[in-house]
Design a protein that fits this description.
- There is one protein chain.
- The protein is α+β, with helices and mostly antiparallel strands and 210 residues long.
- It folds into 2 domains: 80 residues, 3-Layer(aba) Sandwich (Glutaredoxin), CATH 3.40.30; 110 residues, Glutathione S-transferase Yfyf (Class Pi), Chain A, domain 2.
- It has 8 helices and 4 strands; from the N terminus they run E-H-E-H-E-E-H-H-H-H-H-H.
- Strands 2-1-3-4 form a 4-stranded mixed sheet.
- Helix 4 packs parallel to helix 6.
- It is globular, with a radius of gyration of 17 Å.
- The two termini are 26 Å apart.
- The structure holds glutathione (GSH).
């Protein structure tokens, strides 16, 4: 299998963190990483559009030459393909909660954080848009409070003791924010400690560059 990716971009990074976390648990998936340079717009060239008509990353190429083009679907495929020690957990409740928190992080936190980063200091050269940045910052307050509350029972990671896909999704967005020199946590000490703790993990040390 091949993972078409670009370092720094949140959606590829969440898949790369997921693969690295599984590797730490002893699951070697044998996935080759192939960089597609989005700054040079290589993702909009015919070679990449043939893999994914939407031009986005990540893309997972399966061994039969077919493609998956949505980050969460890629993770769920790898969970099914390599079920031993899968991150989603063993029971319906564990799996439901893991998916629930991951969706909240992706849709309510990662999405606005990405838009905020591009509105503030876009690595793709999108012109600054202070009004949009302020709106995204306002939209983030309730979901960030939700995550701070989740951590208030002393759990080290978003779902408890065990790493989850929600941790991967959140950290992938935070790397992007660090790159654009933004910090949106405000007075949320539990999220700050979660961030420091997660970045110490071997998987994070392997994948994160910023
Ligand atoms: N829903 C998709 C979103 C993928 C996406 O928007 N990827 C971004 C990088 S984080 C991208 O490829 N941006 C470049 C572009 O759209 O030209 C997923 O979860 O994989």
């Amino acid at each position: 299998m091949k993972l078409y990716m670009v370092p720094l971009a949140p959606n590829p990074t969440k898949v790369m963190l997921y693969i690295a976390e599984r590797a730490e648990l002893g699951v070697e998936m044998g996935i080759e990483e192939v960089v597609v340079n989005t700054v040079k717009r290589r993702n909009r060239e015919p070679a990449h559009l043939a893999r994914n008509p939407f031009g986005t990353l990540p893309v997972l190429e399966l061994d039969d030459g077919s493609y998956l083009v949505e980050s969460l679907a890629i993770i769920e495929y790898l969970e099914d393909e390599f079920p031993e020690d899968a991150l989603l957990g063993d029971t319906p409740k564990m799996r439901g909660t893991a998916r629930d928190v991951e969706r909240i992080v992706d849709l309510r936190v990662a999405g606005p954080m990405g838009l905020y980063g591009h509105a503030k200091n876009s690595p793709l050269g999108i012109p600054p848009d202070p009004e949009k940045a302020a709106k995204m910052e306002a939209n983030l307050q309730t979901p960030l409070d939700y995550l701070e509350h989740l951590l208030s029972d002393g759990r080290p990671l978003l779902l408890g003791d065990r790493v989850s896909i929600a941790d991967c999704t959140l950290q992938a967005s935070l790397q992007f924010l660090r790159y654009v020199e933004a910090d949106l946590f405000g007075e949320r000490p539990l999220l700050r400690s979660w961030d420091a703790r997660y970045r110490e993990r071997p998987a994070a040390q392997t994948v994160l560059r910023w």
